[in-house]
């Protein structure tokens, strides 16, 4: 949850969600729609500059958060790189076409992931959900999602403590015990989640809960300057990409 | 806020056929500080839930200013603007991702205009001394901070009566002191406060009246008298507060289990000192007399 | 494993989003209706969502050496029914994309389709077919199948997006099945066993 | 069980870049009773988790009988048969449907023959005085009962060192006494016991040594000396135990903050009585002398 923690203390935390969403989505769109080179490199660079510059994301957090998506991207790109056929016996090959395609997914995957980080590392989930509420997503859905977010941390804590208690009594000693422990952990968690939901409901009922969860959302003021900078940044990427890809 | 009284009259409540409260009568006068004591599983929490309107008793009534609580939607809505319960585990009461949103929940449900919601939120945070936490995510708060945010959430409903289940449990000694300061402030604002606690010393030092839950009934009375009663303490799985125990042991009370006026360390030290002075005074008098 | 951001070509991403949308909308409608009729379910649904998210953080015994986690789609499908799972999975996948950088925004539709639609329905179908005969077997099959179906769908999605230059779409699908689904078979078995344990525990409580 | 010592040496631990333990040294001699004190969020629980092997410190070592704990699979397996941690909330530690099954969880994982598993379970339940709970479903137990079952579960591992996080928190006064009786029994069986607590009075009355966590460090020493230190109490968000505070207020200690030998109500009453006697004795002597 390093990205989320970073988002809460981000200097961009109080920027309007619309501003940040427009920047992220515009970068994403250019990455996916324009020729991969040099667009992917440019938008990745732009996202990196934004993240490490004004958004002041710690490089270690960035590196750590990149690890798991990178694993998928590299594994996926490797699968694209290798061509298999079985017409006359199984055959494995790497062709110019497959290597171009592998590079494409590698570039787009990394660039795309970095673009999403722009939103993820500057906007706590609550603000995003408030944004969805303003965007007319049904109230009930937004409320369930926001409660999921809160209960998530409570349950993650519980999970951690139960697992440590199981480990202390050698419940993770071998495969058999680990499976058994995972089973009891899942079951216990479900029961605890249920109990928590019931008690929370009673707690909220005391404060007038009738099924709806009205929320005090700070007004999101869109910044003309920020949007202008976004348009300029994306514009530069588009122009350079089209010029750079032009000769081909 | 004005002083309202709260009363439980002949409340009977059972869970799955097991009686927990068996004809409980409790009266909380407006402006009083009541400590509710009792063993684990004696029904303290159940009683609080009945008083707050969360549970509907099998029999008996809850009365606010002599008016019985109706468990209809409108009756409960009205009740909840007068009586607020803060439960023991703050995670059972905090549902928002950040502090400000959480405290605002109650006032928003009252459909107050936004300006007043904000005013109430700020006031509640201020009263508990946690204004600086307003924008922080709930999951990053410490236990003590979460406890205070939960109280702020109840407070934003501007209740006349505040019921707190073990408000000092799990807090470090300084945290306990801070909590008591906060409760005193609430009281100065006009709220009547009832706390459920296991801490008999705190009950003696803080409360103006004590109620002890035992065997499905409630005994209620003057703190020193009730808490000094050794028989009752045994029956209710409590112990006597140490100042009463020590005073008794030193024979300060002359057979009266409740030393008049002694409720904390300061008053006990004063009594012992006075006894010493009078002993040396009478000695001096006697010596002079010779 | 969810498909990472930027990995699918725009047309594919859009197509899978369109494919998943009716299921999600149907699920969301169910949620809205449910709340209107029984307000108390909001919190239960949220607990179910949080549970589904947390479930994917539970460590299973490793089979291949690397650590693995249950998908939870089978458990969700049998407990909360597939329509609700489509909605809850969307929430969970959105959270995973933004909180943990698992998956992505443009690939959300594709991931919802595999984990929130195909997986739960496959598991639920197995459960309904078998629960009359043998409870334990039904649970095992439901959980294992939900897990496998999820990963097979992911492989098909990737195979369609990146057909092999020689052997075409079939070759692409086979390739990704080999990488993402074949390694999952023992894990699916483990998740099936986990399901049996969990439901036995719940029956005890 | 034989007496083993447990030691933390220069332990450094931080979460998300925030240092919690900053070079902690703590030594728990075999056969001692150690009370670990500190404010909410001071790192008490983190230290316990490091000592139990659940957390691997960023730097520093944990030593059992001078042998450093290795965080390999086999190293941890060995460590967990020597050191057991009982966490604060029993629900985190009880995950089986009934008491007997839960207590048997550890011994079964040790791959002991069934007869020995049963023997250990029975012994643990017996030691905590909860043999009658054996067949009961865990979710039906009261809070105090669950706390004891959690301890029984740890005990069935036959640890030489038992670490308990707030074993008395949330218990009624009688429950606290029962818990202390159980801990004394464990000690008589040869276990070394360390408890983390907020209760300074209990720490003074029960422990043979006290360790205070403050600002990422640990200060350790003789209970009366450490707990009587007013400066330390302020720094660590603690308060002084009331017997020391009262003794000091009455001037019994003649400037020495830690009254020698006074650790609970009985010993304080005895000291005050002795002082009175000697006062009246000297008076009587003087009177006779005239």
From TrEMBL, chain A:
Subcellular location(s) per record: Cell membrane
Coiled-coil annotated residue ranges, if any: none
Record-linked Pfam families: CbiQ
Statement: the UniProt record of this protein carries the keyword Endoplasmic reticulum: no
Keywords, comma-separated and alphabetical: Cell membrane, Membrane, Transmembrane, Transmembrane helix
GO biological processes: cobalt ion transport
Keyword Transmembrane helix: yes
Topology with respect to the bilayer: Multi-pass membrane protein
InterPro entries assigned to the protein according to its UniProt record, in alphabetical order: ABC/ECF_trnsptr_transmembrane, Cobalt_transport_CbiQ, ECF_CbiQ
CC terms in the record's Gene Ontology section: ATP-binding cassette (ABC) transporter complex
Residue intervals passing through the bilayer: 21-54, 66-84, 105-125, 224-245
Protein name: Cobalt ABC transporter permease
Organism, scientific name: Intrasporangium chromatireducens Q5-1
TrEMBL record, chains B, D:
Highest taxon of source: Bacteria
A Gene Ontology cellular-component term: ATP-binding cassette (ABC) transporter complex
Keywords: ATP-binding, Cell membrane, Membrane, Nucleotide-binding, Translocase, Transport
A biological-process GO annotation: cobalt ion transport
Keyword Translocase among UniProt keywords: yes
Localization (cell): Cell membrane
InterPro entries named in the record: AAA+_ATPase (IPR003593), ABC_transporter-like_ATP-bd (IPR003439), ABC_transporter-like_CS (IPR017871), ABC_transpr_CbiO/EcfA_su (IPR015856), Co_trans_ATP-bd (IPR005876), ECF_ABC_transporter_ATP-bd (IPR050095), P-loop_NTPase (IPR027417)
Keyword Lyase attached: no
Domain spans labelled ABC transporter: 6-240
GO molecular function list: ATP binding; ATP hydrolysis activity; ATPase-coupled transmembrane transporter activity
Membrane topology: Peripheral membrane protein
PROSITE patterns for the chain: ABC_TRANSPORTER_1 (PS00211), ABC_TRANSPORTER_2 (PS50893)
Family indicated by similarity: Belongs to the ABC transporter superfamily.
Physiological role: Part of an ABC transporter complex. Responsible for energy coupling to the transport system.
NCBIfam families per UniProt: cbiO
PANTHER family linked to this entry: ENERGY-COUPLING FACTOR TRANSPORTER ATP-BINDING PROTEIN ECFA1, HEAVY METAL TRANSPORTER
Protein's recorded name: ABC transporter ATP-binding protein
């Amino acid at each position: 949850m390093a990205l989320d923690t970073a988002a809460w203390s981000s200097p961009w935390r109080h920027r309007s969600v619309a501003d940040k969403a427009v920047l992220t989505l515009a970068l994403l769109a250019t990455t996916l729609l324009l020729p991969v080179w040099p667009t992917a490199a440019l938008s990745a660079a732009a996202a990196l500059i934004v993240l490490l510059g004004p958004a002041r994301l710690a490089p270690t957090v960035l590196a750590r958060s990149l690890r798991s998506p990178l694993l998928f991207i590299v594994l996926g790109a490797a699968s694209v790189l290798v061509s298999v056929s079985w017409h006359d016996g199984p055959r494995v090959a790497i062709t110019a076409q497959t290597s171009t395609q592998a590079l494409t997914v590698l570039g787009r995957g990394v660039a795309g992931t970095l673009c999403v980080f722009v939103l993820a590392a500057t906007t706590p989930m609550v603000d995003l959900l408030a944004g969805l509420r303003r965007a007319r997503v049904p109230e009930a859905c937004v409320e369930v999602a926001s409660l999921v977010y809160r209960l998530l941390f409570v349950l993650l804590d519980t999970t951690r403590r139960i697992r440590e208690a199981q480990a202390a009594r050698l419940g993770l000693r071998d495969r058999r015990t680990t499976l058994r422990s995972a089973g009891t952990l899942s079951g216990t968690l479900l029961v605890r989640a249920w109990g928590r939901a019931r008690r929370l409901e009673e707690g909220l009922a005391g404060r007038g809960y009738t099924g709806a969860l009205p929320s005090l959302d700070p007004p999101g003021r869109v910044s003309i300057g920020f949007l202008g900078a976004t348009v300029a940044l994306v514009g530069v990427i588009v122009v350079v990409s089209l010029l750079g890809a032009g000769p081909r | 806020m004005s002083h309202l009284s709260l009363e439980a009259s002949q409340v009977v409540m059972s869970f799955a056929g097991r009686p927990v409260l068996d004809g409980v009568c409790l009266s909380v006068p407006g402006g009083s500080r009541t400590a509710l004591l009792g063993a684990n599983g004696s029904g303290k929490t159940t009683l609080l839930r009945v008083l707050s309107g969360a549970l509907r008793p099998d029999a008996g009534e809850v009365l606010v200013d002599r008016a019985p609580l109706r468990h209809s939607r409108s009756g409960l809505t009205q009740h909840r603007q007068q009586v607020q319960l803060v439960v023991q585990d703050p995670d059972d009461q905090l549902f928002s991702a950040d502090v400000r949103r959480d405290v605002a929940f109650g006032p928003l449900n009252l459909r107050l205009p936004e300006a007043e919601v904000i005013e109430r939120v700020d006031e509640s945070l201020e009263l508990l001394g946690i204004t600086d936490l307003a924008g922080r995510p709930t999951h990053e708060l410490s236990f003590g901070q979460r406890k205070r945010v939960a109280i702020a959430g109840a407070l934003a409903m501007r209740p006349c009566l505040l019921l707190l289940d073990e408000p000092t449990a799990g807090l470090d000694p300084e945290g306990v002191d801070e909590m008591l300061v906060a409760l005193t402030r609430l009281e100065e604002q006009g709220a009547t406060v009832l706390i459920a606690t296991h801490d008999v010393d705190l009950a003696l030092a803080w409360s103006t009246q004590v109620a002890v839950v035992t065997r499905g009934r409630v005994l209620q009375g003057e703190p020193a008298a009730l808490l000094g009663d050794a028989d009752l303490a045994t029956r209710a799985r409590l112990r006597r507060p140490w100042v009463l125990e020590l005073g008794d042991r030193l024979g300060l009370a002359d057979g009266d289990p409740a030393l008049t006026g002694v409720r904390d360390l300061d008053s006990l030290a004063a009594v012992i000192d006075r006894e010493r002075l009078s002993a040396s005074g009478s000695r001096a008098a006697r010596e002079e007399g010779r | 494993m969810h498909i990472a951001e930027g990995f699918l070509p725009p047309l594919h991403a859009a197509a899978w989003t369109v494919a998943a949308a009716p299921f999600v909308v149907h699920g969301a409608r169910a949620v809205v209706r449910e709340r209107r009729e029984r307000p108390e379910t909001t919190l239960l649904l949220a607990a179910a969502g949080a549970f589904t998210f947390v479930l994917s953080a539970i460590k299973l015994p490793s089979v291949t050496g690397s650590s693995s986690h249950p998908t939870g789609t089978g458990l969700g499908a049998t407990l909360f029914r597939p329509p609700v799972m489509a909605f809850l999975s969307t929430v969970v996948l959105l959270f995973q994309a933004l909180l943990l950088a698992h998956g992505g925004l443009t690939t959300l539709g594709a991931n919802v389709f595999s984990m929130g639609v195909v997986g739960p329905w496959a598991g639920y179908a197995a459960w309904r077919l078998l629960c009359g005969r043998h409870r334990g077997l039904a649970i095992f099959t439901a959980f294992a199948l939900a897990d496998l179906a999820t990963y097979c769908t992911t492989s098909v999605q990737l195979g369609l997006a990146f057909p092999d230059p020689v052997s075409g779409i079939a070759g692409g699908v086979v390739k990704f099945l080999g990488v993402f689904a074949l390694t999952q078979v023992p894990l699916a078995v483990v998740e099936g066993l986990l399901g049996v344990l969990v439901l036995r525990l719940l029956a005890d409580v």
